[in-house]
Amino acid sequence: MNSAGADGFFATPMSLGSLLYPMLTRPLRFGAEIGPIALNAIRPMLDLIAQGTLKTDGSEQHVGFTNDPTTGQLVAHPRTLVESRDYIHDDFASFQDGKPASKLTEEYYVFRKTAPDQNTP
User: Fold this and answer.
1) Where are the alpha helices (DSSP H) in 30-101?
2) 3 state SS of 42
3) Rounded to an integer, what distance in angstroms lies between the CA atom of residue 22 and that of residue 77?
4) Are 63 and 76 in contact (CB under 8 A)?
5) Residue 77: strand pairing partners
6) CA 32 from centre of chain
7) Cα–Cα distance for residue pair 81/67, rounded to 1 Å
8) Coil, strand or helix at 24
9) Are strands 63-67 and 109-110 parallel, antiparallel or unpaired?
10) Cβ-contact 88, 78 below 8 angstroms
11) Which of 5, 43, 45, 42 has its CA nearest to residue 21?
12) Secondary structure of residue 69 in the 3-state scheme
């Protein structure tokens, strides 16, 4: 999965914001039929990425996650350098009005891939 690679337009590796980032915390329903057996599952996209089941271009590492205070659910937000925030918008209406993205003021989390620990089974 390549959510919005922009490497072809810039001198350094980077990704553009994508419509896929809100889906990272949403459950995906999928399945397979193997002969007479049907297998079905529901898993969050982020879990599939973390397990390596769903291959990506790494742009999920450019997303910040907060907890929704009402529901307790994880919410995905675009994340960028402060000096680039004029080019990131909260929604389409903000884009049309030229309003930059809101700064995350509460604690947020980021997804970071690490090499597997060789001592862990």
Assistant:
1) 45-50, 92-97
2) strand
3) 7
4) yes
5) 64
6) 25
7) 21
8) helix
9) antiparallel
10) yes
11) 45
12) coil
What are the structure tokens assigned to 90, written together? 């909260």
Instruction: Give 35-70 pLDDT, tens digit per residue.
Output: 999 999 999 888 888 888 887 777 777 788 888 888
Q: Please identify which residue in the block is written with the tokens 């884009």.
A: 95
* Contacts of 52 by beta carbon, 8 Å cutoff, 6+ apart: none
Structure tokens at 80: 């960028």
CA 2-6-9 angle, to 5 degrees, is 150
Per-run averaged pLDDT (10 residues), the chain, 121 residues:
51 56 83 94 87 78 83 80 74 82 79 67 54
Q: What CA–CA distance (Å, rounded) separates 82 from 18?
A: 18
Spatial CA neighbour of 15 closest among 55, 82, 63: 63
- Residues with Cβ < 8 Å from 41, sequence gap 6 or more? 29, 30, 31
User: Tokens 């969050």 correspond to what residue?
Assistant: 44
Q: How distant is the alpha carbon of residue 7 from its chain centre?
A: 18
